[in-house]
Structures
1.
Amino acid sequence: MNFWSEFIVVLARGLIVTLEILSISIPASIILGIILGSLRVYGGKVTSTLSSAVANTFRGLPLIVTLIILFFGLADLKIYLSPFWAATIGFILCGGSYISEYVRTAIYSIEEGQSLAAQSIGMTKFQELIYIILPQAVRRALPAISNEIVYMIKYSSLAFIVGVQEIFSVAKTFNSLYFKSTEIFLTLALIYLILTGIATIIFKIVESKLKIPYS
Amino acid sequence: MKNSDIVLRAVDLYKSYGTVKAIDGVSLEVTRGETKVIVGPNGAGKSTLLKCLNLLIKPDKGRIWLEDVEITNSKTDICKIRQKIGFVFQEFNLFNHLIVLDNVMIGLTKVKKLSKEEAFKRAQEVLELVGVERSLWKRYPAQISGGQKQRVAIARALAMDPIIMLYDEPTSALDPQFVGEILEIIKMLSRNGLTSLIVTHEMGFAREVADEILFMYRGRILEKGPPTQILARPKYEATKRFFKEINRLYGAGG
């Protein structure tokens, strides 16, 4: 089998793993981010402090350290995560923490009158958050969330640290067999660019679909 | 007056921001079917007072009753109470992400838990009552004029079937050409028997609509009385000065 046909098969296998990680960690981190961000603003003393602590911890740790703790550190405590899940959970925690920050600031940016109006018709804090504040705040946070997702696509390559056979990892291994780093890594770079490009386009479409007129 | 005829009663309200006494011992009563108007210079505490009455602002001290329920009691479910108190804001505060129709319906479907059909019927009624044209129902707040926004805001409050309406300078943020029509709507609702408490600078309107005018000054109700009395023969120098100033700004007709 020649280099290219073999490379493409290997790369495709890695790409599938990368896509599996992302298809879980992207939606999960957005959901986690919205929940954490909301709790940080709307939660009681305990929940908001706790949520802030979680967010600041995983925002403050180098992702590589988070991944190693999840995989090797937890194993010492007899909690065994597969490489795939250690990486995916790490990405969700990291991405969710960053997104919570964007959601939190977006919530603060919503005019106080929106909250007052919601209260004035008898909404509970929870109803106000779900029906009035979040629909507006998440829209405002979308560009920043999209940015975080682009990051996530790129840092999914760090999964190789805990031994996940994702696309970067298989390319690296493949290179150690063939030593054609220019072809291999340029192709890899191109694939990442396509992935981040697709994500950017999808978010642009979502943003414009959800756009509401502001005066 | 029978106690049951008092819709809203506040006793000895106080609210300070730091050293500033926004409300400095205010008591008031609004009886069923009555319209009271609060006037006074900027910074007198009118808005703060109004927002205290449905606890959008928590007073430091004092008690408030809506009919027989003490709403300043911490055991009272304030969300239930607020459904019965319509509140119209100076800045409209329509929900930016919802079209006109949904602005009115959301309280009905989410708070009152009405079905979509019932909520639509009710929304239709109130929107027609305040004169929001059907062609605007699918628009977002940013796409309609200030006058229409305030109509929708009034409709949103009315839809909840309030037993009293609180209006916080409902025409102050409007372009002049819309002021008259909004005042007409408020007057119409008041004449139809909707108990109302209105903060406004429109003296002509106050004279026409009010059963009683309360003049607020430096966090207190300095004097009160029927419009004829308070406008013609104010007791205090501050009241006189205020009416003079208002007449200069708005003209005698209000």
2.
Amino acid sequence: MIQATKNYFRFLWRCARIAFVGDWRYYSWMGVLTVFCLLGLNAYCKQFAHGLITTGMSDEVSWGVYIANFTFLVGVAAAAVMMVIPVYLYNNEELHDLVIFGELLAVAAIFMCLAFVTVDLGRPDRFWHLIPGIGEFNFPASMLSWDVIVLNGYLILNVHICGYLLYCRYQKKMPAKWFYIPFVFLAIVWAISIHTVTAFLYVGLGGRPFWNSSIVGPRFLASAFTAGPALIILAIQVVRRVTAIRPEAYAAQQQAAAAARQAMAQRAAILEDLELLARHLPAFAAVTNETRLSLLPSLAVFDVSAGSVLLRQGETDKHAYFVLKGRIVVEREESGRHRITRSAGPGEQFGEVSALAGTPRMATAIAEEATQILRVPAEALRQLMKTPAMNKVIHARMAERLMITDRALMTLRGIVQVSMLINVFLLVCEIFKEFYSGNLHGISAKYLFVGLHGHHALVPWIWTAIALNLIAMVLLILPVSRTLKWLNLTCVLAIVGIWIEKGMGLVIPGFIPTPLGAVVEYSPSLNETLICLGIWAFGLLCYTIFLRMAVPILQGRLTKANEGMSDEQIAAEFAVAPSRIQSHV
Amino acid sequence: MSVPTNPTGSGMNRRSFLRTSAVVTTGLAALAASLKPLMEMKDFPTAERFMQKYYKELTAAEMENVLARITNEVEKEYGLRPHVRDYKPKNGVEFVYCLNLTRCIGCRKCVHACVAENNQSRNPEIQYIRVLKMPHGSLNLEEAQHNYDPEQVPEKGFFYMPVQCQQCKNPPCVKVCPVHATWQETDGITVIDYDWCIGCRYCEAACPYWARRFNWTRPEIPKERLNPEMSYLGNRPRRQGVMEKCHFCIQRTRQGKYPACLEVCPTGARKFGNVLDPNSEVAYILSTKRVFIQLKEEVGTSPRFFYYFDV
């Protein structure tokens, strides 16, 4: 127990340390974000001292960009988990590797939501009045009390799921299904509930006809499922790009590999090799001696030096490999970039997917140091997998990789496409209802879309939003958005469009005109804008740190096994530094 | 396997130590600079105020302490010793307001009497009553003029409608408050515990009558204008960041007096009383007058504030 706790804290400590390691791009990015965070903090301290008078809000428009951003980000948090649905309900393999990114985004988005609500409070020092048990909690009457519960619950759920899966991956242990699958399903339902509850915050107000409409809930979900996956499409491409190996480094690596290839020694496998494997792979112990003996003639052992290429992406051959000593990395090329998808140490396999399926190699495997590997033909691997323990382990390890494929992005594009169509349809429904009937309750919509009594601050905004959404919709329908460049543009348009439509376009006009018919406009003050930027910078900072920790764990480069390795080595863009290869050849 | 820069091996070298300390020092300095505006804060919550319990959980003795503390705080700030009490609702009382739209001339005397009585902030200005100037023949609030300023009232072709908290039987503001900081008392007055409100302004968004006001900054009341007759749930000075609104002058009406807005009204348009008392003026009006308006009846709030015409 004490050892387990110690291991866990060691894991946290190593994660924390890796967050401070990176190249100059990483440091400049984090530096810029920190500056914005501090500017935001400074602006918030002013607001804390002088009150919300430092904002553009008034008794007429009593919520502004804080709550607008909050509403948008609840949607992002909810939608980020939607990627879980295809993976766990329909066993979509492509998205599997991206689930963690989605959930980490959800966590960062909720941090931002909580920050936005906090800065909107007039008395943040009295936050404890909201804590059930200590304060006075108006549950279930107040939708805000529901929001407190669902948002914090959602935060805990997602932290638990990603934390647990990453810790298992770090330990190279199989996650216990009962310890996370029920929470995954709960999180799916919960994701829908957080956004519905946030919609109900507005819908429940009978005195504000602009909000008091049952379509707000469905519209929130539709726009969230557009903006959320769109944000993930962009985020994971950033991950892809920054985890890619720089061309110079790759070329050096290739040269070194060519020199190293001669140093590959092959021999027939002997029983001692299998015992060595069993020592590192306990499941192998369950394989009977008869099986071992019958398979032995088909197995071969290779001793390779650092930098040797063991198998190459695109080739077809029916062998899988187990590492006996040393360490290998697997790197994959897609869209002209090379990326490390996994890393394997003693007892771990590689090359098994294409061996079993007979498909071309998905990636290239390279020895990271002097390494001994056991080559197993596909037929022999199938024999081994007849032992249930081996079957389980090999299947589990197949999923242990970090592969962000273009196909996964296209699956996300499909989600964005459908949601955007529904979103625009619901918007049309709303506009029709507000304008065709011509009743007095449509007055806020009139202010929003065409202006009222000479006031039209929001008119350019909403038409920009509608234009962006329509262009994004058309692009999503056209095949042109299957290319990443256009898809990225589409995602940016959709995110900006929805941010305006849902934030400024929903929250502000609800207050204009006031229930007594006065038209008072709102625009955020500089201080308020700085606070918003600060919170966004804080959210991005959190997400960057989360990814900084998660990526090496998912690649198998930050593991319990390599505790002695320095942070720089783990964070290096290529495990085999050219200088190291030369020393071995 | 030798890697030239291994920080875990030979300990931190001189250069990286200097670099780290430079980064940490700059970071701390930047953080301190960011936090500096906190020094400008005039009204930092004391531990006692931070820990103060919810109104309904205060025992009689604790309430006495709180009232004594408030008395001292007000005296310290305004140089005048106030008389702060916590007036409880009486049994068999339900307050109702009736306002005669035929008589109201839109002079806004009620607005200013209310500000003076209830210690509302003069800067920025907070007013509980908003008088609407409406064209004859319409009750459409979209047509209302809020900032009318003629030489003389009333103006031809218009009538005037003062709007304040309607003390709803079914108040949306109470329903939405996440911390029970606002509630309806047995005599029908919806009150706010100013020391419990977290300032989320959800009630302000929920109110269909735009009756709630927020203290966007520290309220300012000139010392000589302070009304020293105060009640806990009523007109004691508020702090920055909390809601307030009309409470039917709880410090007066629970002692059998009329609200300030009624007393000042030059035309007698305002009537107030206990509707459960059959001999009260309001009971008489509600049982004899024929045309009543409950503002925004369709919202289902069921106001205790009735507008009527002399017909």
